[in-house]
Amino acid sequence: MFFKEFFENQIAVRITVSIVIVLVTILVWFIVSRSLKAYRIKKNDGNPIIKVSSTKSVILDTIKVGIFTFIILVILEINGVNVTSLLAGLGVAGAVVGLALQDFLKDIIMGTHILMDSFFEIGDLVEFRGEQGVVEEFNLRTTKLRSIDDDDIITICNRNIDQISKKSNQIYIHIPLPYELKAAEADEAIREMVDRVGDSETIKEAEYLGTTDFESSYVDYLVLVEASKPELWKRSRREFLRIVQDVLLEKNISVPFDQIDVHMK
User: Fold this and answer.
1) Is the pTM of the predicted complex or chain greater than 0.85?
2) Which among 159, 145, 155 has a CA at the least distance from the CA of 114?
3) Does the pLDDT value for residue 3 go beyond 50?
4) Which of 191, 189, 193 is nearest to 239 (CA)?
5) Going by C-beta distance under 8 Å and a sequence separation of 6 or more, which residues neighbour residue 177?
6) pLDDT for position 195
7) Angle at the Cα of 42 (from 39 to 46), degrees rounded to 5?
8) Dihedral (Cα; 60, 63, 64, 70), 10-degree rounding
9) What is the pLDDT of residues 63-117, one digit of tens each?
10) Contacts of 19 (CB under 8 A, 6+ apart)
């Protein structure tokens, strides 16, 4: 008797079916998300701290929005709303709203460009208005950076992509040595600096590139240092400069400075 009365009540049936659809959708999405996370962990040798790439992140967000939009339309149709007329009305309203949301649409368009051109990925080191940071999160509207100086989170609207430059984790370090120092002695000192990098946790490797210029007061030598992680860029630079300082002190080599010779008659 109860079930007969229940199924004869159209409102109750519609509400129940709507709730069931929502619960099933949430359950399926939960299972899929957990499965994808388990797959990533297994693929990365059991490491649970894994960030999804920019492309995959946006694809997952798009799929999620698409699924839940479709479910909302289905629920509206079940509850007697004419979805076709609704979409037509939304099309007109969308044109009006679009004019009011120009910046928002610019962010979406530029976010799509970033995604299609692979301008940067999560984990890359970039610079924005003089601030260097690692890309922590990316979607079609915004990009979030974690500053390598103080770990602050910087949120950037994607329409400002022209102000973002992708940085390398390689650092070119110039070492000024006096003209009085023989080239062989300079090479020996710099190679010792490079050899000491082997014990560093922040520096992946260093390469001696040779002489780059003859300045007014010194010979300029160049070393290429590569940080072990993008966020360790500045720390790697400071550590190698300390190695340079120690080696020069041990070998009693002074760093030259600009001098002016004045000739008096």
Assistant:
1) no
2) 159
3) no
4) 193
5) 186, 189, 218, 219, 221, 253, 255, 256
6) 92
7) 135
8) 180
9) 676 777 777 777 776 666 666 665 565 555 555 555 556 677 777 778 777 777 7
10) none
Q: Which two tokens stand for residue 164?
A: 């973002």
pLDDT digits (tens, 9 = 90+) for 221-245: 999 999 988 888 888 999 999 999 9
Short-list 139, 111, 149, CA closest to 231: 149
| Nearest to 110, CA basis, from 137, 135, 138, 132 | 138
Query: Residue holding tokens 């979805």?
Result: 83
- Summary count for the chain: helices (H), strands (E): 7, 8
Q: Write out the DSSP string of 119-153.
A: ---TT-EEEETTEEEEEEEE-SSEEEEEETTT--E
